Structure formats: C-alpha cells, structure tokens
Model the fold of this input.
Amino acid sequence: MSVDTVSLTGWGRTAPTTAVRFRPRGYGEAAAVVRGRGSRGVIARGLGRSPGDAAQNAGGSVLDLSGLARIGGVDAAAGVVRCDAGVSLERLVRVLLPLGWLPPVLPGTGRVTVGGAIGSDLPGSDHRRAGSFARQVSALELLTADGEVRTVLPGTALFDATAGGLGLTGVVLGATLRLRRVSTGLMSVSTERAGDLDDLLARFTAGGDRLPYASAWVDLTARGRATGRGILTRGEHATPDMRPAHAGRTRLSQRSGAAPGSSLLPGLPPLPGGLLGPAAAALCNEVRYRCSPPARTGELRPVSAFFHSSDALPDVRPLYGRGGLVRYRFTVGYGQEETLHRVVRRIAARRSPAVRAVLQRFGAADPGLLSFAAPGWSLELDLPAALPGLGRFLDGVDEEVAAAGGRVCLAQDSRMRPETAAAMYPRLAEFRELRARLDPAGAFRSDLSRRLGL
Done:
C-alpha cells in the first residue's frame, strides 16, 4: 500500500485541502486504514470527479480506491455483474458492451467509479424509468467503522443511508449490479431545437417516455424572447434492423468519441485560460444553437458518444480561470415550473458565462435518505468560481429553490450553507441519527460533512 501527503480538490478545483492519502491493494489494507484512522477520520475517494469537496478530508485520511478495480464475470442468466468499487463506469461499459450488456443507469461522464456512483446515487438521463444508480445495486460490500466488511442489501436502513450518503456510512468496496441487455453498440438519437424555455419544456413532455433517454442543453446566456432556448436530445438503444442497409453486421463494441456538434465550444478555436467571460460564452452558445439542425431523427451514435460525449473533449476547466468552477445543480417539482423560469431569467439577466447547462426530467424519488433526484425538473450548470458576487447570488437561488420544495445536489456542492441543506433534505435528521448509532466516534468524515454538519 502506498502512502503520501497530498493537496486535493474536487473536479472543480476549488478549496484545496491537505490529507494523507492511502492507496490500498486489497480489502484487508483498506480495513487497516479505517482501524488505524486518526482523530480527523477517513473518507473514500475514487477518480476525483465530484466537483465539490465530498472526497476531501482536511488534516485527515483519504482512502484512494482507484486501485481496487476488478470486474467479476457476468452472470448471463441473472443479468448481473460483481465488481470492485474502484472500477470506472467507462471501463465497465468497455468490458460489458461486447458481451451484450450495459449498466441500466449511466450518468453524464464515464470517468466516475462504481463506488462514487453509489455514494452520490447518480441519476442518468432515463431516471423516469430506471431511477438512480443505487436502484440497480442488488448487494454491496461495505467497510464499516469497526473495520469489518458487511454485505448490505437493498431495503435495509444501512443501504438507504449509504445510497447517496457520500461515503459517510462506510467505504463501499464492491457491488453487484443488475444489467440491461442490448443487441447493438449503437443508439438511435433524435434532436430538436426549442425557441425558449416554455417550448423546451413542452417538447420534453410531448415526447412522453417513448424514447427512454432525454436531456437538453439550455442556453443560459440568451435573453428576451429567446430566454431558456435549447436543444433537446432523446435516444433509445438501436436494434439490428435500425442499422443502415449498406452497413455490415452491427458490432456491439464501438469506439468512443464525441458526437458531431457535441463540442462545448463548437466551431471556435481554443480560448486562453480564464477568458470565459459573458461575451465569449454568449458567442459559444449562439454558434452551438445555430449549428444544431431544427430537427433530426434516427441518427445512429456509438453508446459512449451518446452518454459520455464530453469525455472525448479536451479538459475545459482552464477556461474557468485559476479559481476553478462551481457546479450548481438543483431540482424543483412538477408544478413549480415558474421557479425554474425565474432562476433561468436571473442567470440570463446577470450575464453569467454559462456554456454548460443540462436540463433533465426526474421520476419517482429514490429511497436513499440523501438521494438528490425527486419528481420534477433538474438543471445543472457550471460557472467560474471567481465571478464577483457568485456566492451571494447562489445563496439567493438556494432560497428560491428551497421555498419551492426543491433541493440542491449535495454530491456536487462546494458552497451551500448547513441550514439550507437541512431545509432541503427532510430525512437529514434520520441520516444523522443512523450515523451516530453506527459510527459514534466519527470514523468517516469529509470537508463537505463538516461544512454542512452531516
């Protein structure tokens, strides 16, 4: 096991803190770290893709699980796979797809580990059908505060606290995942432009769930009658009869890559670091919107290009400047569309340089005590952390979201206040009580847990 002292941040590169990092080679070494933890506790960390401080632990220990990455055999009869928590979803897709299987829930990046997807209970673009990631887990192996490894099953209090529990109930070491059978490595994709936010919401709902995967890019720099305009993308798994007549046998294994027109800054040369200002962002968004066809159906894309197109692009974080980026994601329920409208108008009126903004629809709430997804609309956006007055501005948005019964995503948060989190998550007291009972000495801690009093 390697050990070093490092300065760590989340993917957003804000608020670095120093911790002792352990890289175990097996479950026994991981358990030894938990048993020998210091007074500042320990937190698990995967590939560091959480934008905020959920996988940081100032002055304490960080358990880097990226080396625990074994994938067991696929049980074709049961449609399940057993894997270590350090396996990335990108690698899981690469291994499973040639066998005719996929994880049923894939978030917007493949560069997140199975353990991280469980700890954050990540939703995908088919949440209305499949729920979040933890719903596809049939069992998990959890290293608890006493240094023991437990098998935890869905429907138990410990499972519900661990799903979306941000690593604060223990260290997920492995999981058994249910899989989805697919017959090709392609997706049949439809895209359409919407002229404003009302038009975009109407197009979302008009399609129903005929195509299970749906998300939209929203232009948060457009104002006036174009406020909230966007591009809606929907998809389904392609069947062999959907392939072009001239194509050969459809391969299950497909090379990953960005889909045409999916670039964050399409048609523009690279910008110098830190120059993502309002004018540049508005120009990027204008080009992206105009370059998208008004409507297109039946386009075939490789699975990875559909789900993880941004992973094939260069690292865009330097565009946000040395201060890093703040990712803000919130959800409000159906019937609260006016709140969504007000937030979009506020961002547009402020001329915030937002080039990445993703709108999704969620279905039934997930069972995790701190799971983010709930029935309604979710908007996720990135902003430069160094924007003047950004903290006060987002505090105001927090209040508006909370007043509408919505919530901000804890797994991606880097700046929310503890009283706001308590107002948004009604089961937080239940989560705290369970943690106090199972981990009275506070073995598992993070910068986020201290900041929000979790």
Notes: Residues 255-273 have pLDDT under 50 and may be disordered.
